[in-house]
Design brief:
326 residues, alpha+beta, 2 domains, seven-stranded mixed sheet, 54% helix, rod-shaped
């Protein structure tokens, strides 16, 4: 497992890079401050520090799990967490959320990723500016906040897209793209799938009775929880608004179909008696009225026009045609 970052934070904002190879987790936990190791899978050709670290087998299994969902659980004197962040890699779909596995104790924080997570890079960048976290709890809180910060533009973009679809439907009277609507619904549902469990995981971390979780760290975790909660609620609202737009589109299509069926029904109703009359006059038997009269054809045509006009007037009077039925 490749080591992407290894720093010892002194608890006063400073951090120095270290080489953890050959040292166990217990050895790294000794000393002032705490150590942050950020690992990445897969790396088959590089030394696998995780499985040589001396960590508990359960911790190693959770950190190396291929699939995860957001959660938080205490184990001994540490905390196991799984968090999710939007995928901001080039060519990737943001809703294909990437996982971050965390094992945290007072003297050691191990984070593991399988794909690039920009939020971790944001936190790591602060180490070079003497703005390192003061304790393990603050590091987790910072990562959680940055995960929420990175997700906010994605949710805001979804809000703008659903706003545009609603405007196109309600103000312009046009049927918006069903493909665009389906995409908004799909993305919001997939993001929401992880946001609510992530909120619960952060809430659990906030209330866990861990001695190394200082008050400031708990405040940051609470802020991260509130941000994730707002994001989850926004995704709920986006999903509901998308369903409303979809229902409106279906209503408009049903109304248009009903209008077309009404027109066809009216046309059929108008021509049914006319067809009956012409059919009777066209039968090949003796005694058809007017067969020997030169003007009979024009009389029949005039009669058909009168009957047709009378039916049109009747249908208008009944409100079947010529009125707004919507």
């Amino acid at each position: 497992m490749a080591i992407r970052l290894a720093h010892r934070c002194d608890g006063t904002g400073g951090a120095e890079e270290i080489d953890p190879q050959g040292q166990t987790a217990a050895q790294l936990s000794q000393g002032e401050g705490f150590v942050w190791l950020h690992l990445e899978r897969p790396a088959p050709d590089e030394p696998d520090w995780l499985h040589q670290s001396g960590l508990d087998a359960l911790v190693t299994e959770v950190l190396d799990a291929p699939e995860t969902r957001p959660r938080c659980a205490t184990h001994g004197d540490g905390v196991l967490m799984n968090l999710r962040g939007v995928n901001l890699s080039e060519g990737a779909e943001p809703e294909d959320m990437v996982s971050l596995r965390i094992w945290a104790t007072q003297g050691l924080v191990v984070t593991v990723q399988r794909r690039r997570i920009r939020a971790v890079e944001d936190v790591a960048e602060a180490l070079t500016r003497r703005a390192a976290p003061q304790d393990s709890g603050e590091l987790i809180a910072r990562i959680a906040l940055r995960l929420a910060d990175r997700a906010e533009p994605i949710v805001a973009d979804l809000n703008e897209r659903i706003d545009d679809l609603e405007t196109e439907l309600e103000d312009n009277g046009r049927v918006p793209s069903r493909a665009e609507l389906a995409e908004v619904r799909r993305v919001s549902i997939m993001l929401r799938r992880y946001m609510f469990p992530q909120r619960d995981a952060l809430s659990t971390l906030e209330i866990e009775d861990m001695d190394w979780m200082m008050h400031g760290a708990r405040e940051r975790v609470r802020e991260a929880t509130e941000r994730v909660t707002r994001l989850a609620e926004s995704l709920d609202a986006i999903r509901d608004r998308a369903e409303v737009v979809h229902d409106q589109i279906m209503d408009m299509r049903a109304e248009a179909s009903n209008r077309q069926m009404l027109v066809l029904s009216v046309v059929a109703a108008i021509f049914l008696p006319l067809g009956l009359l012409t059919g009777l006059l066209g039968i090949n038997v003796g005694g058809v009225p007017g067969a020997a009269q030169p003007m009979a054809f024009w009389v029949v045509c005039a009669l058909l026009l009168v009957i047709g006009a009378g039916q049109v007037w009747l249908f208008r009077h009944l409100g079947l045609i010529g009125r707004d039925r919507g």
